[in-house]
Hints:
- The chain is of the alpha+beta class.
- The protein is built from nine helices and twelve strands.
- It has one domain.
- The strands form five sheets. A three-stranded antiparallel sheet has the order 2-3-5. A three-stranded antiparallel sheet has the order 6-7-8.
- The protein binds zinc ion.
Amino acid sequence: MFLKKEWVWNKPIASPDGAGRATVKVENGRIFYAQRWSVYHPLNFPNLPNRLAHAESTTGAVKFVESYGILGYHSLIAEQSDDELFTTGDPLGWFLHQAKTVRFALQIINALQENKTEEQLSDLINNEMMLVPMKVLVKDAQEETKGPAHCFAEGADIVFRPALDREGKHNLIAFQLVCHLININIQNAVRTIGIKTKRSVPTEQYIFTQQFAFRSLIEAIWYMIGDAAVNLNRRGVRICQECGLPFIVTDKRQKFCPGDPFSSGSLCGGRNRIRKYRKSDN
Ligand SMILES: [Zn+2]
């Protein structure tokens, strides 16, 4: 039978000594875990892009890996065995650049979906730029000169992109940036048609089902961002009213970063309620 398994990813499980948390290590510029792991279905966690957007520092990255595993840098550059992959881990710098790029793309999608003005879009795009030596942008540029550029994670690479400064065209630039970032990060995602059993009948029957396969968790995350960009199932992007980070809507009443069974301890909704309660108490 050709029943194909759904795509899964690995996450560390809490250490057996009862500490309750997985042991994620940062050593020699890499983030990894060298312990027991279990598998899960990332596509059942639509808030993964938001959780990654929270990784603004090493602590944030560790928190993410504790819950969802590494992003899978190695599988983007070479075929390696799972064992090797999970003990080698991700380069921390690349991990944080991916988180930053995800945050940026979600913010732009939100701004476009909420019809922000040219000026607001221009601020959003330009605020993320940094001054870099012109040499990294143009080969024969003069020494010492600097120019503004974005620094994006594109697949396994970290790439400098020079400013696309076209007055009055920030709406189009915003669309182009989002398309580029999504497409470059999902180019190896694969959709296949599979078969699954129909359980509700007494005799064995089968139906078609679509399945997705990715080389790494980061590709699955970008795939979800693509769905949010086209507003698939009305799942657009909103900004959390507590922490200011973007999240993908799964329920139209949502105002805060949603949680899931792996991250229920860090929810913005709960924090917001506590703050309001304290305010009213004073
Ligand atoms: Zn939040």
